[in-house]
Amino acid sequence: MAIAAAHCLTEDEEEMIAALRELVEDGADDVRGLGEDLRALRSRAAALEDAEALTPESWDWAENIERVARRAAETMAEQADDIVQRALPPLSRRPGEEAEEVAAATRRARERDLRRLAAAEHLVHPDTAGFLGHVARETDAALVRGEVLAPDELAVAALVEDEAVRLEERMATLAGRLRRGAAEFAARPGEEALVAALHGQAANADAARATVEAFTASVRRYRASAGSAPPAGAAGTGHAGNALNYLIALTSLAIC
């Protein structure tokens, strides 16, 4: 499956957006230069339309560009008479038309990805969620037995916790995107099934996040135990199985 390359805003694109915002807020004289910027953005948006899936960075890029381009198109339409009079030589296209095309292209890319997500069998593989639950239970059981982390486990556990927190954030962001998408499609007749599917997937993302949060909490408790001496008669340091579980969990989290 072709995945869209990560689209973080480049310095040139940040300058383009600043120019568009200047147009929105103050009115800009260099309409022709803005047109060139918009065509460059349209080219990148077209690449997203061809991608089978958007990365989180690509999604953020599309949302940001769509919002600014839509507002720029509205402002240029409102100022169309002044823009036409200032333009030398005369403009070949209606003021705001190119901004509308950028907004439309990024919207199509987002909507295509929303339909893909709505139809996805799993947002997070069920084996991953099940394994994280298993490791969390094993971790808590180790605490009950009085085990504390050995140095090798402590190093891996810190990496696992960081990766788990990142997945929690991704699931929260994904749930928000799905619900915003559902709200957009709810305004269109005939999209009831898609809206329901998007809400269902948002609930799945919430459930996945809750599973990861429970896992993260267990890792934190176990890491905290490393600073405490084991009680008399306790099992002492952990064993190789805990470190192996954490290594597998780290791999599973990284590929989600």
Automatic annotation (TrEMBL):
Protein's name according to its UniProt entry: Uncharacterized protein
Lineage: Eukaryota, Viridiplantae, Streptophyta, Embryophyta, Tracheophyta
